[in-house]
């Protein structure tokens, strides 16, 4: 056996060019497949990771995908708000366990400002029931306290007790500069859209908009000082959406219906999991196409490897005959060709693993920053290992054909 | 047991080529004799040697080497038997280019009884024989065998054929690729080694001038039925 390994290795080394080209093509196709698959799963995870917390999302009547996108991912903007009164009414329903109000609209630099309550920090959970955690500081106690997500802190280089100014609207020049906020808490990285949020209290949002009407700053009658503002009634007038958790999931459809039939205002409630799945189905078509293309690439490079093994059989006829003469059995010849195929696919897999690992160090942070796709660094999950095994086994299975050919030839061939 | 090879009523046909058949009524090769086989190209010299080495199996009839009917052995035993008892030298392609000359010589040992305690013995045997064949030690240890001359390659082939102390050496046109000087050197070295090692030699060739070096010559066409 040792001699066969030795012969296989040396023989492969002596055919450096064809062998390395075969390995390169197989490696590239494996890398392609792994990256696409990892991306796909990562995107899916980041996608669905945001919906762990609630059973229903309450919002003004509009497209359900739209509501989902702005309430959970802070993508796009709401067309209508819901009134504070309706929110109050609904939150009193006995079936409701807890409710997190969400108010969107303003921004800070490239990040969105979201008004909410303490509930958000206590109740919001993502992926496998992970809770938000503070890297430093704590949630807001005073009106002009602010909590920032980990990406906000990292990219803008903010520390606790830094002052920040909030801009009115998204990508706007007009600033709420008379109300500087103080950073009181920085959240740990979650890999969800929360990382890119600037979180303030609902009261704060109400306060800074006191002397605003329909989008522009009125020449302020009251020279709004913080102190004065804090004495006013800061109960919010409107909300963007709310995440609802029910005491029992059995009541989901009942509550959904009640909200959809709500008389005083046209409201809607969506079940985030269902809407997300709809959305994902649209997105995943491209994913599936890419996945099947990359599997075909793998198949074609395995076929390429077999083709090379085959065409070498004729060239190497003398080599096989010589091995037979010095005592190698036809079985040994079979093993030899199989072993070569094994080495080729084994090394391709090893190289692919190394490449993907290196690529992950380089590209994961970029993906996270640019596209909000948070990929876990632990790549070698059961799924990927299973896939690599599959590549190895299928290339071995296909190599049986040239190996049998070599076996036959070595029996029937004279010198 | 005087005969190394005994053949009677032998018939061989290629599976895919019916127009050629090799039929021999009787052929006996005596122990320690050196025999040369002549015959036209295509008359079946190589085929006969392949039958004797057990690479090919006769269609019918009896062919025994050292009183063992190799065709009756299992595939594995057959391969072992060949590696242990028969050395083969070809006209060309005697050497795996990607192995070192030393590894090439020791190949038959790797496929047979190469046990730990034998290792030293076979290495020493290689060095002794190499010296007799005028092959320097540094040549044996080259990384690969690509750069050997034709003459060197043929001498390495002799070493490989004889390393396992076979009873029988089969040489198929082993001199055809060599020039006159190399050919004479080769034949002399081979003859001396066969004498020293008491090996039977069976060589197929076109070259009738070699006849004088052998104990006996056989014209294959004459013994074919
Ligand atoms: N692998 C093979 N399959 C089918 N027929 C073969 C094979 N090898 C040889 N033959 C045929 O067997 C016959 C004998 O060939 P062989 O090689 O034994 O002749 P030879 O006497 O050695 O000739 P040469 O002197 O040219 O080497 C030829 O007709 C040849 O075409
Ligand atoms: Mg021949």
Briefly say what this structure is.
The complex is a heterodimer of chains A (415) and B (225). By secondary structure, chain A is of the alpha+beta class.
Describe this structure in words.
The complex is a heterodimer of chains A (415) and B (225). Chain A is of the alpha+beta class and 415 residues long. Chain A is built from 13 helices and 16 strands. In chain A, the strands form four sheets. In chain A, strands 1, 3, 4, 7, 8, 9, 10, 11, 15 and 16 form a ten-stranded mixed sheet that branches. Chain A has a two-stranded antiparallel ribbon with strand order 2-14. In chain A, strands 5-6 form a two-stranded antiparallel ribbon. The longest helix of chain A has 44 residues, at 272-315. In chain B, helix 7 links the parallel strand 7 (168-172) and strand 8. Chain B has a five-stranded parallel sheet with strand order 6-7-8-3-9, sandwiched between helices. In chain B, 40% of the residues are buried. By secondary structure, chain B is an alpha/beta fold. In chain B, 38% of the residues lie in helices and 25% in strands. In chain B, helix 3 runs parallel beside helix 6 and helix 6 (150-162) packs parallel to helix 7. The A-B interface holds A 2-3, 6-7, 10-11, 13-14, 318-319, 321-332, 412-415 and B 15, 46-47, 49-50, 53, 55-56, 75-76, 79-80, 82-84, 88, 90, 93-94, 96-99, 103, 107-108, 110-112, 144, 160, 172. The complex binds adenosine-5'-triphosphate and magnesium ion. Magnesium ion binds next to helix 1 of chain B.
């Amino acid at each position: 056996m040792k001699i066969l390994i030795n012969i296989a290795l040396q023989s492969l080394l002596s055919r450096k060019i064809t062998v390395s080209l075969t390995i390169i093509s197989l490696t590239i196709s494996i890398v392609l497949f792994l990256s696409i698959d990892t991306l796909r799963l990562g995107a899916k995870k980041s996608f669905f990771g945001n919906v762990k917390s609630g059973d229903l999302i309450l919002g003004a009547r509009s497209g359900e995908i739209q509501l989902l996108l702005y309430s959970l991912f802070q993508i796009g903007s709401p067309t209508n708000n819901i009134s504070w009164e309706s929110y109050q009414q609904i939150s009193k329903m006995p079936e409701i366990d807890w409710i997190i109000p969400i108010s969107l609209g303003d921004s800070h630099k490239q990040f969105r400002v979201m008004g909410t309550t303490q509930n958000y920090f206590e109740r919001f959970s993502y992926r496998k029931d992970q809770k938000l955690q503070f890297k430093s500081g704590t949630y807001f106690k005073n009106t002009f306290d602010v909590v920032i997500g980990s990406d906000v802190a990292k990219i803008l280089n903010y520390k606790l007790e830094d002052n920040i100014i909030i801009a009115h609207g998204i990508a706007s020049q007009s600033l709420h500069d008379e109300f500087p906020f103080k950073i009181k808490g920085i959240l740990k990285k979650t890999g969800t859209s929360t990382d890119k949020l600037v979180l303030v209290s609902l009261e704060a949002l109400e306060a800074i908009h006191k002397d605003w009407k329909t989008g522009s700053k009125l020449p302020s009658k009251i020279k709004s000082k913080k102190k004065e503002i804090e004495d006013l009634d800061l109960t919010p007038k409107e909300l963007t959406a709310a995440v609802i958790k029910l005491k029992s999931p059995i009541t989901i459809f009942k509550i959904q219906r009640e909200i959809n039939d709500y008389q005083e205002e046209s409201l809607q409630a969506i079940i985030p999991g269902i809407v997300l799945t709809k959305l994902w189905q649209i997105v995943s078509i491209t994913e599936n196409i890419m996945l099947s293309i990359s599997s075909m690439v793998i198949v074609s490079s395995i076929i390429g490897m077999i083709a090379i093994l085959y065409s070498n059989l004729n060239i190497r006829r003398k080599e096989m005959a010589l091995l037979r003469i010095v005592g190698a059995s036809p079985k040994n010849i079979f093993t030899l060709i199989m072993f070569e195929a094994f080495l080729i696919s084994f090394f391709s897999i090893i190289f692919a693993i190394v490449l993907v690992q290196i690529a992950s160090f380089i590209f994961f942070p970029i993906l996270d920053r640019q596209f909000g796709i948070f990929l876990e660094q632990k790549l070698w999950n059961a799924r990927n290992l299973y896939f690599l095994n599959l590549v190895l086994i299928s290339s071995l299975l296909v190599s049986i054909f040239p190996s049998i050919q070599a076996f036959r030839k070595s029996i029937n061939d004279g010198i | 047991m005087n005969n190394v090879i005994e053949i009677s009523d032998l018939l061989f046909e290629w599976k895919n080529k019916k127009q050629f058949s090799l039929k021999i009524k009787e052929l006996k090769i005596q122990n320690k004799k050196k025999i040369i086989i002549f015959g036209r190209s295509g008359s079946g010299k190589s085929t006969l040697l392949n039958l004797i080495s057990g690479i090919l199996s006769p269609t019918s009839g009896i062919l025994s080497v050292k009183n063992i009917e190799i065709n009756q052995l299992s595939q594995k035993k057959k391969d072992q038997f060949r590696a242990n008892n028969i050395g083969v030298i070809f006209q060309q392609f005697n050497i795996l280019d990607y192995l070192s000359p030393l590894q090439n010589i020791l190949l038959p040992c790797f496929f047979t009884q190469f046990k730990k305690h034998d290792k030293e013995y076979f290495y020493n045997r290689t060095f002794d024989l190499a010296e007799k064949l005028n092959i320097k030690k540094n040549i044996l240890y080259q990384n690969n065998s690509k750069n050997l001359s034709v003459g060197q390659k043929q001498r390495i082939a002799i070493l490989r054929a004889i390393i396992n102390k076979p009873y029988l050496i089969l040489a198929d046109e082993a001199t055809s690729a060599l020039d006159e000087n190399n050919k004479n050197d080769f034949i002399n070295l081979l003859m001396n080694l066969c004498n020293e090692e008491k090996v039977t030699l069976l060589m197929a060739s076109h070259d009738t001038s070699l006849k004088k070096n052998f104990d006996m010559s056989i014209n294959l066409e004459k013994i074919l039925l």
